[in-house]
Amino acid sequence: MHLELRHLRTVRAIHDQGGLARAAETLNITQSALSHQVKALEEQVGVELFVRRARPMRLSAAGLRLLRLAEQVLPQVEAAEAELKGVEAGRVGRLHVALECHACFDWILPALDQFRRGFPEVDLDIRQRLAFTALPALQREEVDLVISMDPDDLPEIHFEPLFDYSPTLVVSAMHALAGRGWVRPEDLAPETLIVYPMYRERLDVFSEFLGPAKVEPREVRQIELTDVTLMLVAAGRGVAVMPDWVLRRHADNPELAFLRLGEAGVTRTVHAAVRGLELQQPYMQHFLRLAKLEGARNRRPLA
């Protein structure tokens, strides 16, 4: 005996509709074709599946067994078919995000929260502890999107610009530099510089400001939490360079002062790294739009 999904759908439809005519409409075939299909199925299994003299038409004991099988199997098959159609339409998928910067949580969480409302069927996650290996993880398909400030020429990886930001020096309001609008690299030579625990080449203050000038601060101290760093800065225990979007929510703190890096300031760009094959997925495009909008909100001048 060789059962097919169409056989199970036939048994279920006739049971649900109570007869061949309405079942044929449900299955979108002619009543004659359905009658022949039922006859062929009964010949194959060797028993009658329906009590034809009953009105409405009802299942025999053997037919009820097939109905129970249909009720177990068909919902799973239909769920899988719907999921595959959703994948094809870009409604279903996976968006596992890794961040190369500690401070990115400040702006990306609102974008992710909006995203999950628009695409609830997408498997959404933030993969922490990948800051040092995020792009290799993207290439290995362990994550699907990386927030990065350092675009690289990687095979099959697309870097989408999201928004610009300005790395900004924050010092105690009592610091000797506090009254100035900007600083030179050599101004940081005598300072304790507090940074996030990242590779030095990925820290803006070194890659864009101190490194090119070959200036080294007196001491470098690594602290993971932004609020702890700013508490120490306010206490005069060091200075820090952070993205302007991080410092904006502290702009009214009278214990802190903010200065540009160099007279013209430094401008950097946040990118989203995505595998090229997935870039045009509707859910991926939607997230990129949300990320750009959220980034634009962070472009207000820092007071």
From TrEMBL:
Keywords: Amino-acid biosynthesis, Cytoplasm, DNA-binding, Methionine biosynthesis, Transcription, Transcription regulation. It is found in: Cytoplasm. GO terms for biological process: methionine biosynthetic process. Residues 3-60 form the HTH lysR-type domain. InterPro entries: HTH-type_LysR_regulators, LysR_HTH_N, LysR_subst-bd, MetR_PBP2, WH-like_DNA-bd_sf, WH_DNA-bd_sf. It holds the Pfam family HTH_1. One of its GO terms (cellular component) is cytosol. GO terms for molecular function: DNA binding; DNA-binding transcription factor activity. PANTHER family: HTH-TYPE TRANSCRIPTIONAL REGULATOR YBHD (PTHR30419). Belongs to the LysR transcriptional regulatory family. This is HTH-type transcriptional regulator MetR. It comes from Paracoccus isoporae.
